Amino acid sequence: WLILALASGAVPFAEAICNKFDLEYDLLFMAAIFAPNNDECQIAKVSELNEIVIDQNLVDSFEITLDYIYGDAERKYQDKLLNNQSQYRKSLPLTSIKDRNILLIDEGCETGLRTVCAIKSVLAHGARKVSLATPIIADDLFHQLEKMLDDVYTNYKIKDFIEVYYYYESLERFKKKEVKKILENSSNYVPFKGEK
Fold it and tell me: Which of 33, 125, 188, 191 qualifies as a cystine partner to 44, CB 3.0-4.6 A?
């Protein structure tokens, strides 16, 4: 198994799981694409593996062109995703996922854009089996993902989901420096394993 953390907030979860079960992990970097003139309305996601998932209902509602989405995806790839690879992985590519069982880890799933983008990315690059582990998930999303994944592990399926952080009594939001420190000190983070 290879664990893929889907966000920096998922790194402590991935680290804990890998320590307990003697597994290894990597980060799968993704960037949000927002509607023009609305930096709070996420309409798509792009992964470092150049896979894009689009919320077609929003795109149709706002009459957003594919040229806009793909153009912004290319900018996000160049500006954000390559920068993340450099900062968190010393510019190394994602650990090979071909013919591997993949467990996606996230601190919570509300809309599913990030999760579906991750699923599309790993399947397009040859993953054998794909599962998801998340403490909380929107109930309707759980049932959609159940059809796409081999397994979905969760503690709570929530109807009328508000947002991930609403359901945590406290969920520490780590700064980049803190996440890097976890990764650098990890014996399970694949990109840095050869350095120890």
Answer: 33
